[in-house]
């Protein structure tokens, strides 16, 4: 399969590498330590054009194809896993807007991103529900001049930091059947209660606490499309594909750091740099090959993305996410093991990335669910795939 890019595509991927190194990585340790929104990094991402990478061109965005998009988030993750993860969630909301919103809504929401540099979060997960599966318990009902939302969400990334949150709601029809309806809730909406407490192993700067909606009011323009439409557009599956790119990018940075370290360090009584050790050579080979093979499947999935139906997209994402998860966990663990005690110091990229990768690889579809999806596809159990929900 040919993964070659045009000159313009290559330029934006190269720019992502520069932005990751010059703007994102220098701040990553601080945001991790204090577990705060990476606000200055978001500003830089906006100034450098990355907040609009999945906004259509006719609305002032860059409208990257999926392969280039994946390469961009992979490069950004080399600087800061948290900034890349929040950018990816924001970008996936922009894809939902493209697929579901009216022209008036697009004009309004895209200008907030392109002109003002504002971010959008996506909140689907609920305390009583498996990650990315089952009927949504948060209810949306029509009221005078708008809608009222009630329910609890958890793992609400960018809570208090983004401008709007795409809240995954259930809309009940007259016969009691429930279908998914996305509502874009402004950060200052009445009835939106952000609970304190986000002190986690890794991904600390995503700031993803629990949020309650207590008859939270939104105006008529806040809902995207008809009830049930969000499940048919094949956008939710791109959450998992982008996560795969971020895992590979983050793990690659840990490996690159390790390679620089063993190439430049000599420890008494050995006369040669650490890189000359046979164990180091074998470990570097194993790690690099794991990342390369996961990356190949990821790029293959991204290249096939366009024009695939939601089920095929779920399979493509599950293949990529499973391999990226396994590779990133192995590489970050091995980098810590091989680097030894010196690498346990906070502030060094491997220690932070090790915790971030261990945490962000829990995102849905998790390892077991990804394998289940791939297995169902391989066994031709399409009816089971049809009955599952794949949005995050
Ligand atoms: C840093 C971070 C940020 C997040 N941000 C957001 C956000 O902004 N918006 C949002 O909506 N959500 C977010 N999430 C939540 C995420 O989407 C999941 O919903 C969340 O991690 C809860 O899933 P879970 O861990 O309960 O997984 P579960 O899916 O319940 O998995 C728990 C265990 O059950 C097993 N399991 C699950 N399914 C199967 C299966 N089919 N077969 C066999 N075993 C299975 C798994 O192996 C796993 O060990 C975030 C999560 C993290 C960690």
Describe the structure.
By secondary structure, the protein is α+β, with helices and mostly antiparallel strands. It folds into three domains: 7-119, Acyl-CoA dehydrogenase/oxidase, N-terminal domain (Butyryl-Coa Dehydrogenase, subunit A, domain 1, Orthogonal Bundle); 123-226, Beta Barrel (Butyryl-CoA Dehydrogenase, subunit A, domain 2); 237-386, Butyryl-CoA Dehydrogenase, subunit A, domain 3 (Up-down Bundle). The chain is 50% helix and 12% strand. It is built from eleven helices and eight strands. The chain has helices at residues 7-34, 39-47, 66-77, 81-100, 103-114, 237-264, 278-304, 310-339, 349-360, 367-378, 382-386; strands spanning 120-123, 139-143, 146-153, 164-172, 178-186, 192-194, 211-219, 223-224. The strands form two sheets. A four-stranded mixed β-sheet has the order 1-4-5-8, covered by helices on one side. The protein has a four-stranded antiparallel β-sheet with strand order 2-3-7-6, with no helix packed on it. It is globular, with a radius of gyration of 21 Å. The two termini are 29 Å apart.
Question: In a few lines, what is going on in this structure?
Answer:
Strand 4 and strand 5 (178-186) form a beta hairpin.
Question: What are the key terms here?
Answer:
binds flavin-adenine dinucleotide; 392 residues; Butyryl-CoA Dehydrogenase, subunit A, domain 3; four-stranded antiparallel β-sheet; 50% helix; Butyryl-CoA Dehydrogenase, subunit A, domain 2; four-stranded mixed β-sheet; globular; 11 helices; alpha+beta; Butyryl-Coa Dehydrogenase, subunit A, domain 1; 8 strands
């Amino acid at each position: 399969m040919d993964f070659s890019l045009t000159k313009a595509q290559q330029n934006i991927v190269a720019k992502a590498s520069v932005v990751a190194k010059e703007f994102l990585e220098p701040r990553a340790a601080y945001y991790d330590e204090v577990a705060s929104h990476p606000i200055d990094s978001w500003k830089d991402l906006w100034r450098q054009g990355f907040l609009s990478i999945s906004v259509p061109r006719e609305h002032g965005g860059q409208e990257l194809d999926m392969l280039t998009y994946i390469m961009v988030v992979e490069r950004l993750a080399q600087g800061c896993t948290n900034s890349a993860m929040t950018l990816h969630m924001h970008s996936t909301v922009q894809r939902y807007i493209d697929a579901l919103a009216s022209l008036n809504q697009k004009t309004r929401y895209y200008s907030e991103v392109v002109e003002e540099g504002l971010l959008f979060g996506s909140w689907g997960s609920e305390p009583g529900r498996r990650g990315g599966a089952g009927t949504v318990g948060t209810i949306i009902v029509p009221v005078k001049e708008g809608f009222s939302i009630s329910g609890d969400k958890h793992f609400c990334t960018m809570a208090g930091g983004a401008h709007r949150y795409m809240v995954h709601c259930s809309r009940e029809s007259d016969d009691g059947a429930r279908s998914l309806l996305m509502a874009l809730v402004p950060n200052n909406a009445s009835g939106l209660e952000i609970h304190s407490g986000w002190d986690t192993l890794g991904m600390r700067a995503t700031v993803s606490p629990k949020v309650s909606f207590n008859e939270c009011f939104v105006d008529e323009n806040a809902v995207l499309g008809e009830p049930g439409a969000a499940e048919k557009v094949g956008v939710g599956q791109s959450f998992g594909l982008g996560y795969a790119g971020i895992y590979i990018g983050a793990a690659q940075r840990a490996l690159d750091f390790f390679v620089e370290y063993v190439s430049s360090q000599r420890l008494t009584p050995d006369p040669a740099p650490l890189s000359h050790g046979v164990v180091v050579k074998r470990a570097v080979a194993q790690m690099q090959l794991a990342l390369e093979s996961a990356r190949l499947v990821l790029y293959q999935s991204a290249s096939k993305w366009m024009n695939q139906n939601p089920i095929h997209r779920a399979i493509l994402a599950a293949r990529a996410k499973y391999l990226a998860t396994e590779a990133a966990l192995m590489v970050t663990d091995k980098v810590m093991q091989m680097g030894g005690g010196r690498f346990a110091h906070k502030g060094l990229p491997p220690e932070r990335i090790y915790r971030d990768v261990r945490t962000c690889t829990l995102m849905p579809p998790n390892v077991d669910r990804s394998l289940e999806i791939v297995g169902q596809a391989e066994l031709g159990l399409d009816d089971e795939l049809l009955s599952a929900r794949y949005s995050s």
